[in-house]
């Protein structure tokens, strides 16, 4: 709001307008950001690749996907090493236009256009990690790490990709380095605990998360993961306490209630669990990961209650979300 006030008083402050566009884009106010770009900044600098990339982000956020691809391509034509435009263009093709091969092709072009760039390897690793191509994500994360040994995000991508590829020694090594570099980051401990859990070391994973509680500022994600693991371990009293701790944070209420549903399933309180999960489902419908878990757990509850038709329907919904899960 301060930047908007400055611009009302002095519309010619292009530096402030650039900062405002960044803020508006981060807030998801794409139409407002687009207006500042088209009516002011791009009139002054029509061939600025950074501004064009921001305009493409706005168009993408507003669902104008074809226009966005044209804008990103223009940014790349003007500056072949403006790598954020490649990443945005690739993401638009893969996720928005459902043309993953085109997206991958633009990432390849970005890599070929670079000269041994940490930025490019980081963008490539992030892209492939989001695409669940964990072999490629690991490859480019390792290239980024070779050139920047303080890149915590890439250590985490390498760790989690290694876990999913069942390369657990490498996964633990990368996760430990991430924790050492950023002991205040909750995601570092969560990834480390996930690696331990994947190897059947659930008590060790729980201990990792319990240690993290005293070290991180953002405790919500730690409580969330810890409660889930405590439920898996059958430590229901501890899970109940952790969920209460989670309620004291700003963590999304629907996810807290989902954990309560999971806890009731673990305690075999089938009717109460079903009612809780049914009430939560509309609030997590936009999260494919959570809604498939809700449907799967509902399938278990209905089966235990003898409602086989409802159980099969719930399992079918879960499989529709992700045919390879659980």
Which residue ranges are poorly predicted, with pLDDT under 50 across at least 5 consecutive positions? none
Oligomer: single chain
* Rg over CA atoms: 23 Å
- Discrete helix count: 19
Largest sheet: none
Total strand count, please? 0
Percent of residues in helices comes to: over 70%
Order of helices and strands: HHHHHHHHHHHHHHHHHHH
Q: How far apart are the first and last residues' alpha carbons, in Å?
A: 46 Å
Structural class: mainly alpha
- Percentage of β-strand residues: under 5%
Overall geometry comes to globular
Mean of all residue-level pLDDT scores: 94
Secondary-structure map:
Layout: H1 2-9, H2 14-26, H3 30-44, H4 49-61, H5 65-78, H6 83-96, H7 100-113, H8 118-130, H9 134-147, H10 152-164, H11 168-181, H12 186-198, H13 202-213, H14 220-232, H15 236-247, H16 253-266, H17 270-280, H18 288-304, H19 308-321
Helix pairs in contact: 1-2, 2-3, 2-4, 3-4, 4-5, 4-6, 5-6, 6-7, 6-8, 7-8, 8-9, 9-10, 10-11, 10-12, 11-12, 12-13, 12-14, 13-14, 14-15, 14-16, 15-16, 16-17, 16-18, 17-18, 18-19
Features:
19 helices, single chain, globular, 326 residues, mainly alpha
């Amino acid at each position: 709001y301060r930047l908007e006030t400055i611009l009302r008083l002095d519309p010619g402050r292009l530096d402030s307008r650039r900062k405002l566009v960044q803020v508006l884009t981060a807030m998801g106010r794409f139409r407002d950001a687009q207006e500042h770009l088209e009516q002011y900044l791009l009139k002054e600098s029509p061939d600025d690749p950074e501004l064009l990339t921001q305009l493409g982000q706005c168009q993408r956020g507003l669902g104008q996907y074809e226009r966005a691809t044209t804008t990103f391509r223009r940014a790349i034509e003007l500056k072949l090493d403006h790598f954020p435009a490649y990443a945005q263009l690739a993401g638009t093709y893969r996720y928005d236009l459902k043309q993953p091969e085109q997206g991958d092709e633009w990432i390849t072009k970005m890599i070929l256009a670079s000269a041994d760039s940490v930025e490019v390897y980081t963008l490539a690793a992030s892209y492939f990690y989001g695409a669940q191509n964990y072999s490629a994500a690991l490859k480019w994360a390792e290239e980024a790490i070779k050139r920047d040994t303080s890149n915590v995000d890439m250590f985490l991508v390498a760790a989690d990709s290694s876990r999913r590829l069942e390369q657990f020694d490498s996964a633990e090594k990368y996760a430990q380095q991430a924790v050492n570099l950023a002991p205040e980051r909750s995601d570092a401990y969560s990834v480390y605990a996930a690696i331990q859990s994947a190897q059947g070391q659930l008590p060790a994973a729980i201990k990792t998360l319990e240690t993290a509680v005293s070290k991180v500022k953002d405790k919500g994600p730690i409580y969330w993961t810890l409660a889930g693991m405590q439920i898996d371990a059958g430590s229901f009293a501890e899970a109940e306490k952790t969920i209460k701790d989670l309620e004291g944070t700003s963590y999304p209420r629907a996810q807290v209630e989902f954990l309560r549903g999971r806890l009731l399933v673990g305690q075999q309180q089938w009717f109460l669990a079903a009612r809780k999960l049914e009430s939560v489902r509309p609030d997590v419908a936009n999260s494919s990961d959570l809604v498939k878990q809700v449907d799967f757990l509902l399938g278990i509850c209905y089966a235990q209650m003898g409602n086989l038709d409802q159980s099969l329907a719930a399992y079918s919904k879960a499989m529709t979300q992700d045919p390879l899960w659980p």
